[in-house]
Specification:
The protein is of the alpha/beta class. Helices cover 52% and strands 12% of the residues. It contains twelve helices and eight strands. The protein is elongated. It binds guanosine-5'-diphosphate and magnesium ion (MG).
């Protein structure tokens, strides 16, 4: 299935919360007037687009409507298409041309995020992707807070046929990370992916834990970790922006993964994530299976949100 087809299938709830309400507003306002703009803004807010982003969308839409000389009589279709353009353009900078910085050997990806956001599952998906690209991958169970966490990673390791460095529950996560990078070097693997715990209710502790992991990695490779990916749960909507700001402070995030976009109605919040944070969205999670990870395509995403057909090449 094409990415567009997959998005359309998986983003049904968000499409309903977002696209359907926009359509309703447009069809009940055949004229482009202040009333229409006010109701559009309302609809965006209801669909989990934050206040600042909703305002900026409306501003950009007004500019586009003003500049559009050749509008057909069908205002609803015109405005919807222009709105799609605005949203795609707003998200485009978050889909940066340059991919992940993984030229080092071994390259190290540190995966952070609050508990339950989807870190361990995302690590399995990433490992699978890189494995398919022909890279040798090693995993490290740095979430040592709960026994179940390292077991979960080991289970994925078994399924993927990948080695997992683990010291069990209660171990020092930095010691696990250090061990793992040493092992990665010794075994000549291409990529090390490190899981972490995300007990955000104790920010000082978490900051200490993550910065210690960073420090010990640097003893073995001054540039490690080469990527710090923050996993966000799309179900948390606008809260994703807040969380990202906190983790940016704590751990120098280099990129985002928005997990669980399937099954949530709050996918509209991704627009704010892209617009309000100066961070690239590297991947989106569309399910619980190994293959349910895709690169972020702003244009396809915007079209699916608004219920527009796939763009013609
Ligand atoms: N539907 C869906 N579920 C997901 C996705 N990613 C993770 N999950 C589920 O979310 C729950 C928590 O994920 P987990 O990886 O354990 O989160 P962690 O605590 O951050 O490591 C698990 O039940 C996962 O199967 C996704 O993209 N879509
Ligand atoms: Mg986990």
């Amino acid at each position: 299935m094409s990415l567009f087809g997959k998005l359309k299938e998986k983003l049904v709830k968000t499409q309903q919360a977002f696209g359907d309400s926009i359509r309703r507003v447009l069809s009940s306002h055949p004229r482009i007037d202040e009333d229409l703009y006010a109701e559009l803004e309302e609809a965006l807010l209801t669909a989990d687009v934050g206040v600042q982003t909703a305002e900026d969308i409306l501003q950009a839409l007004r500019d586009k409507v003003r500049r559009a000389s050749a509008m057909s009589d069908d205002n609803a279709a015109n405005v919807r298409a222009l709105l799609g353009e605005v949203i795609a353009e707003m998200m485009a900078p978050a889909a940066r041309e340059n991919g992940l910085n993984l030229s080092a050997r071994p390259a190290v990806i540190l995966v952070v995020g609050v508990n339950g956001s989807g870190k361990t599952t995302t690590i399995a998906k990433l490992a699978r992707k890189f494995q398919q690209d022909g890279r040798r991958v090693l995993l490290a169970a740095g979430d040592t807070f709960r026994a179940a966490a390292s077991e979960q990673l080991s289970m994925w390791g078994d399924r993927l046929g990948l080695p997992v460095i683990s010291q069990g529950a209660g171990a020092d996560p930095a010691a696990v990370a250090f061990d793992a990078l040493q092992a990665a070097k010794a075994r000549g693997v291409d990529l090390l992916i490190i899981d972490t715990a995300g007990r955000l209710h104790n920010k000082a502790n978490l900051m200490q834990e993550l910065s210690k992991i960073g420090r010990v990695l640097k003893k073995l490779d001054a540039d490690a970790p080469h990527e710090v990916l923050l996993v966000l749960d799309a179900n948390t909507g606008q809260n994703m922006v807040q969380q990202a700001r906190v983790f940016q402070d704590i751990s120098g995030v280099t990129g985002l993964v928005v997990a669980k976009l399937d099954g949530t109605a709050k996918g509209g919040a991704v627009i704010s994530v892209c617009h309000e944070l100066n961070l690239p969205v590297r991947f989106i999670g569309l399910g619980e299976k190994m293959d349910d990870l895709d690169e972020f395509d702003p244009e396809a995403f915007a079209r699916v949100l608004l219920g527009e057909p796939e763009a013609r090449a």
